[in-house]
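I am writing to request your help with a piece of structural work I have in hand. The matter concerns a single protein, recorded as an amino acid sequence and a row of backbone structure tokens. Could you please explain, in whatever detail you think fit, how the structure tokens follow from the sequence? Thank you for your consideration; the sequence and its tokens are set out here:
>
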Amino acid sequence: MNKIYPSAAAALDGIVRDGQLLAVGGFGLCGIPEALIDALKDSGVKDLSVVSNNAGVDGFGLGKLLQTRQIRKMISSYVGENKEFERQYLAGELELEFTPQGTLAERLRAGGAGIPAFYTRTGVGTLVAEGKETREFDGHTYVMERALVPDVALGKAWKADKSGNLIFRRTARNFNPAAIMAGKVAVVEVEEIVETGTFDPDSIHLPGIYVHRLVLNATPEKRIEKRTTRQNPKGA
């Protein structure tokens, strides 16, 4: 089975539709599947519910889809750094399901593992728990969280072989493995594609069984959110 597609647009062709639930990997601007997000924008699909730790920034990452009003609902844990997100949410134009960061990761992991729900103490007694089932275990109250099983997952990895086995680079791994595992169809953009069998099996972070489509993006932008520099001491 050939998993490699000639472009991000081709990789999304036939699998993205209006009203879907999507998961998108990344944390801040690290590990963002930027080529796939651009192709998703260009596809024109709308009324999307998107699971992602955050929503990029204005004009980059998922921020582009907010600008074009293609996202109806965000399931996220952090929504700072994005003025358009703030504007739409406060105006009642964007639905938001706040989810604690660890809970969000576990909801995706559970979806990929076939676990329909789990109990956690995180969020008990807060708005996070409103309307959710709670149970007592060993004298403590736990809230039940449902797993997330997106229709499509968009991920970013460093390298892949032709079978879809993935290697992530440092912190760019972040939410990507969990998002990719959870998706009914997972599309991953990578910076390099090598022959199957090239990788040491112990170096593979996510096996290709979870990956349905691959697209090469050899020169991603790789933005950073804030650049901090230190002035050299005088005379140095």
Observations:
- The first strand starts at residue 4 and ends at 5.
- The two ends are 58 Å apart (CA to CA).
